Amino acid sequence: MFSCISHCVLPQVEGNLMDASNSSKVIHISYITSVSINILIGTFGALTFGLKTESLVTLNASRMNEIIKTIIGLSSIGYSVLNYPLNMFIICETVDKIIHDTKIEQNKKYYYAWVALTRLVLFASTVGLALLIPYFGILLSLRGCLIGTCLVFVFPCYFHLKLKWQLLSWFQKTVEIFLLVIGVVLGSCSLYGTITSLVYAFETGVEL
After folding, report:
1. Which GO terms describe its molecular function (predicted)?
2. What CA–CA distance (Å, rounded) separates 31 from 35?
3. How far apart are CA 175 and CA 160, in angstroms?
């Protein structure tokens, strides 16, 4: 569970749980833990490296010594291994709906062949895109600035206010409006920074 990417995964995961009664508690604990860790890491980076802090503070920390570099490398691998299947789960479930109530789904051999083939194609496609598209990391940041900000901050607050304005207390309204404004401001700042980095990368061939 991660503080900013789980919004697209949680509904599908919750829908597939055998007992979803404790899902709200799990989500709250996961978000609080993840956000706390993000704040600690961000504060550590700002206080330790100052203006030289990279977009990923792990890049700074990995230059400190070989032991830290190894730990960060292993942690990054663990993050990828745990994160990738969580997001791919949604895509695979959507693809599997194509064969719902067909002979492929009813026959075990055909079904396992379908699962193996589709997972292989999806995996190869995602890896291929990451390798072939130039400055893929910056493009993902650009996507995050637009889609991520809207899905995490703007849309939830806006639609909740729109649908339940008469039922919310003034405190709830104030908090949600504050989150909406903060989301728009920070999203705009990150969008400007990402576009600047992308233009610089294309002009010079070097990432900021």
Report:
1. L-amino acid transmembrane transporter activity
2. 6
3. 12
